[in-house]
Amino acid sequence: MVDFELIKSLQSPNHTRIVHLVMDGLGGLPRDLDGKTELEAAHTPHLDALAARSQLGLAVPVGPGITPGSGPAHLALFGYDPIRYDIGRGVLEALGIGFDLQPEDIAVRGNFCTVDEQGLIIDRRAGRISTEFNRQIVALLRQIELPGVQTFVETVKEYRFVLVLRPTAGQTLHANVSDTDPQQLGVPPLPARARDEASEPTAALLNDWLAAARQILKDHPPANSLNLRGVAKDPGLPKFPEVYGLRAAAIATYPMYRGVARLVGMDVIPVAGEEVEAEVEALQAHWDEYDYFFFHVKKTDSAGEDGDFERKMAVIEHVDQVVVPAILALQPDVLIVTGDHSTPSSLRSHSWHPVPTLFWSRTGRADGIAEFGERACGRGSLGVFPATDEMPLALGHALRLTKYGA
């Protein structure tokens, strides 16, 4: 775990720049065809050449054998202990769309889903409905009223939305409530369950809202039902710019990742489009304004969750072709290429496997391994290491930490 007070005390101002290129769900598992993972099978000449001049390793987001969600996995990359700072997905989604979340608000991520005539889930993501269809059905859900709270329902993207409960009668709501998504098919949604006595009123409100929402949605396939995940309140984390002494910016197209960046105090740079080319343009336009850039690529994870090995491989190749040369042309002082977690297409889900990580800097010691892949990273000098180590290492290599002790 990063000692934030120690890092603060060692801050040394400099003009160096750090880029954290995060290909979401980067890690994979070997396929039968040739025994290669998606990353190993991809044609990545720029990453391979960079690997030869870098240190390699495998990052563990939370702990051995533990499969991380996207929130804790990203917090780990930013140096926050994901066990100590347990952040619900609802807060990240709300902040990601720029919702004005108040300290007493309860925020919940919602997923539209498809159920059959028996009420069993047959598609957890409702066929990845369009964002426009999402807006139409969200408008219907805004008519639901609950006693003692103000409700907000906001579109996020595709099948995702945010539900916010805001107390209106001076009461305090507690967020220790379980998800309703069973995360498997062929079973019914779960009820929201309070994990402690204080959270029972919140669970009751959410179950009432769910019942009303499902009644409204029953005639709107494929989004004829929904689930709630990540019931949470804003925890008030230590702020990234203060801890590290960096002007920090996030470049991301998906709301949740903009949300986690806002949560830790980064500026979120607008991106004029959904493709990595638009993200590159945003990076180039704001290069002189910041010391640290979190550059997020989502589609590696989406392809893995869809079980599409070839598409995930193609996304990695596109990043190699478009993003990596553009970042190097800007001449950063430190470039980390990694993922937040592994999403093997063979599993169609996040997994516990350590994440391949490339660490290049002007002051680094190269491993001389001219390949970027899981097995190559397993031979690297960084070894298997906690993802929380990436930020202190980046600061050291960027000459932004002074000597500790006499």
How does this model look, in words?
The structure is a single chain. This protein has 406 residues and is an alpha/beta fold. An eight-stranded mixed beta sheet has the order 9-8-10-1-11-12-2-13, with helices on both faces. Strands 3, 4, 5, 6 and 7 form a five-stranded antiparallel beta sheet that branches. β5 (149-157) and β6 form a beta hairpin. It folds into two domains: 4-86 and 238-397, Alkaline Phosphatase, subunit A, CATH 3.40.720; 93-232, Alpha-Beta Plaits (2-Layer Sandwich), CATH 3.30.70. It is 32% helix and 19% strand.
Summed up, the domain count is 2
Count helical runs.
14
The CATH class label of the largest domain is: Alpha Beta
Bin the helical content: 25-40%
CATH topology (level 3) name of the largest domain: Alkaline Phosphatase, subunit A
Shape designation:
globular
Give the strand tally. Answer: 13
Largest beta-sheet details: 8 strands, mixed
Please tell me the CATH architecture of the largest domain by its name: 3-Layer(aba) Sandwich
Instruction: Walk across the major sheet and give the strand order.
Output: 9-8-10-1-11-12-2-13
Strand content: 15-25%
CATH superfamily descriptor of the largest domain: Alkaline Phosphatase, subunit A
The ordered string of helix (H) and strand (E) elements is HEHHEHHEEHEEHEHEHEHEHHEEHEH
Class from secondary-structure proportions = alpha/beta
Low-confidence region ranges = none
Radius of gyration: 21 Å
Ends apart, CA distance between termini: 24 Å
